[in-house]
Amino acid sequence: MSLVNPVTQYPDNPDKERQAGTGLDADLDVKAEHGEGSYVGSAKLVGRRALITGADSGIGRAVAIAYAREGADVAMNYLPAEQEDADAVVAAVADTGRKMVQLPTDITDEQAARKVVTDAVEQLGGLDVLVIVAGKQQAVEDILDITSEQFDETYKTNVYAMFWMIQEAVKHLPAGSSIITTSSIQAYSPSPHLVDYASTKAAINTFSKALAQQLAPKGIRVNVVAPGPVWTPLQVSGGQPTDALDSFGEDTPLGRMGQPIEMAPAYVFLASPESSYVVGETLNLNGGMPTP
Ligand code: NAD
Ligand code: MG
Fold first, then answer.
1. At the topology level of CATH, where does 38-283 sit?
2. Which family is this protein grouped under (predicted)?
3. Does 70 contact ligand 1 (Cβ within 6 A)?
4. C-alpha to C-alpha distance for 126 and 120, rounded to whole angstroms
5. Is 259 in the pocket of ligand 1 (CB under 6 A)?
């Protein structure tokens, strides 16, 4: 295999774009790379049963594709409005023969979020990997302009739903299971326009490290992935101010944004027994930005 330079492995930013609403991968003009045509599995997750939130697009899509190609059966949660994207994920891994259960549900509602977990357990015949990827990020320049509604939705999506779903899943996860949450470089290097979002990502990191110690004696490992700037619908549907999109990722040491596919191997590693002695860790995948 020839050596690959990570600086030029994926494209730097072409002209950026902006979408209204939540943002569909299907509507991205500048396509993101999720490994549909490139990810080759090596039986790392055969027999695993995984629930992945936010599995329709972006980072969650790359994880869902990788997990299916590694041999796992997968339950996918996502916003019902993003069904089109979720269907593309199922199509991408149809040839694996793995079970792909679709659970479109808004998880800002407690009962609905808990039901996603019990539905996944029922339809997969059990659960041993829970991957929390779903997230909400809306840039607002001025603290005076952050509405209580946005603050509430951001915390409900990123923090409360994580808590509800983990609490429900712990009732079912056997020893050997993994819980993987998704933080961000924003947890330590917050942007001035992401006050609410960045603080949820710090909460996710700390919540996970506390819980990791509590669940380790039961044989359940909790770990975190903290991405840097990654090209997904989240960023072009209000996640960044419009004028910031053109230089998105350029301030990383690699000088470019990341692609969802570059996140997937960390989630595979943390779900597989290869990471058996990794507990309460945060894997920072951010193109080289220093972290604590
Ligand atoms: P994305 O928009 O492709 O994925 C987020 C998904 O979350 C959406 O597809 C949506 O279906 C789901 N979601 C949002 N609100 C929901 C709700 N109420 N109920 C159910 N599902 C809901 O964007 P992404 O960038 O791949 O984001 C995935 C995760 O990665 C998020 O937690 C985000 O904070 C984190 N992250 C992203 C970046 C980045 O630069 N893209 C950087 C650091 C962390
Ligand atoms: Mg989506």
1. Rossmann fold (3.40.50)
2. Belongs to the short-chain dehydrogenases/reductases (SDR) family.
3. no
4. 8
5. no
